[in-house]
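stuck on this one:
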Amino acid sequence: MPTSFLASLPLERLDPASLWTLLPTDVRALAARSLYARDREDPSARKLADIAIATALRFREVAVRKLPLDRRVEFLARAVRPDDSLGSSLLLALHMEHRRPMLAAFLDHLGIAHEDGAIRDGSHIAPQPEDRLSAAAERLFESFPVEEVEIYLASLLVLDPDTWGALTALLEKRRAATA
């Protein structure tokens, strides 16, 4: 059964920034903390986050960098409306830091090569047909919390619509099942 999260998604005009604003605050905080934890892998994302916080709060960036991590996470989760670049980084950090088993299971179901849920850099994945995505998604819904799966599928859709575009129909069908 779909969650209220799925019911709130404007699938026809969804992008990383708007998806971010629709996430529950606790999920945004988890994503923000994940982004800062992954700093060694992507320091530019942390810089984007600090700049976004500074802009939202009308602080200087240097003042934001001096804030304790918990305060930056709180500001990022509650006060920042990120652009698509930062929104994408936050969504990626959330899933790569906390949801790798779900990512790995999904890619395994689709027969896509990966390393612990991460698709190898430079790998080209052909657009996935709706029937294969539906079968793989249903297996996720059986094994993982429904809202986490919905967030993951919506994230795939906004991060790479060329590959995962058929997820729109799948999510629409799930939403319609409860209407």
